[in-house]
UniProtKB/TrEMBL annotation:
PROSITE patterns: RGS
Superkingdom, taxonomy of origin: Eukaryota
InterPro entries for the chain: RGS, RGS_sf, RGS_subdom1/3, RGS_subdomain_2
Name of the protein described by the UniProt record: Regulator of G protein signaling 13a
Pfam annotation, one family: RGS
All residue ranges annotated as the RGS domain in the record: 60-176
Naturally occurring in which organism (per UniProt): Seriola lalandi dorsalis
Length: 185
């Protein structure tokens, strides 16, 4: 279903978010048996999705985020609900952790702070005042972990709120029905 797959938002391009690298990186794990079954059953599925992979999405948010298509469909779902700032922030933090240059890290930390953390930020995430203050102090001498607490909070929010809504959504159920029908054929 091409309408469910979203490309990265234009406003993330200035932050050099490379979701393809993330998908190939440490979060790409998952169940090897399930991935091998997907490859063997892909002839029945022209979209590149298979029932086995999609059924893994319901096991955990980590499983959903480790899937190329799962990530894209989850992002599209959140965007349709006008609540995609959390996944956007989480992905930007994942990319931020890969920065090696201290100059680039400092510049990126300030951009992330202005876009997601500061009060009244354009894509402000829901974190407590104490965490916001710690990050404000941390970005004066940024490290790869200066956004970890906010990222943990945001992941928890998605896990408790957005992820269960996604699993109950008509989009996810229709996609599961479509792929399970192609497996039956």
């Amino acid at each position: 279903m091409p309408s469910l797959v979203a490309s990265p938002p234009r406003e993330l391009q200035h932050l050099n978010m490379d979701t393809e690298n993330k998908k190939r990186g440490k979060y790409r794990g998952g169940n090897l048996k399930s991935r091998l079954q997907c490859r063997s059953s892909q002839a029945a599925n022209t979209e590149g999705l298979c029932f086995e992979e999609m059924s893994q999405w319901s096991h955990s948010l980590e499983g959903l985020l480790s899937s190329k298509y799962g990530m894209q469909i989850f992002q599209a779902f959140l965007k349709s609900e006008f609540s995609d700032e959390n996944i956007e922030f989480w992905l930007v933090c994942e990319d931020y952790k890969k920065i090696k240059s201290s100059f680039r890290m400092s510049s990126r930390a300030k951009k992330i702070y202005k876009r997601y953390i500061q009060v009244e930020a354009p894509r402000e995430i829901n974190i407590d005042h104490k965490t916001r203050d710690v990050i404000r102090r941390n970005i004066k001498a940024p490290t790869t972990v200066c956004f970890d607490e906010a990222q943990r909070i945001v992941f928890g929010l998605m896990e408790r709120d957005s992820y269960p809504r996604f699993l109950r959504s008509d989009k996810y159920r229709a996609l599961m029905d479509t792929t399970s029908e192609s497996v039956k054929m």
